[in-house]
Amino acid sequence: MKKLSKEALKLRESILKEFVIDDGAGKAILNTALMAYDLMNDAQAVVDAEGMTVSGDRGNVKSHPLLATIRDARSQFLMGLKHLNLEVDTK
After folding, report:
1. 58-80 confidence digits (pLDDT tens)
2. Across 33-81, where does the E strand assignment appear?
3. Angle subtended at Cα 15 by Cα 87 and Cα 27, rounded to the nearest 5 degrees
4. Residue 64, SS3?
């Protein structure tokens, strides 16, 4: 299993400082959410370097395949946070 990035570990520390997550399931959800966070950021770095579009096998222009990975990982990250029932002050 891939280790979390420094950025994800920093986010984890920040979340655990603000919220009490002391059960195994909650920690697993947080860890899974942070793995999705890292995947999202890794895929975004590739898209940033290569552009939003790529050439298809027939020379046509199409969306970068990692855009779907970014979308799905972002959704998984946010869903993980939602499942933790964190009360976030939006003021």
Report:
1. 989 999 999 999 999 999 999 99
2. 53-55, 61-63
3. 95
4. coil
- Residue (of 66, 70, 83) closest to 36 by Cα position: 70
Q: Give yes or no for a contact between 67 and 47, defined as CB atoms under 8 angstroms apart.
A: yes
The CA-based dihedral angle spanning residues 61, 62, 64, 70, taken in that order and rounded to the nearest 10 degrees: 150
pLDDT tens digits along 12-61? 999 999 999 999 999 999 999 999 999 999 999 999 999 999 998 898 99
Residue 80 near residue 38, CB atoms below 8 Å: no
Q: Which residues pair with 53 in a beta bridge?
A: 63
Cα–Cα dist 48/64, whole Å: 10
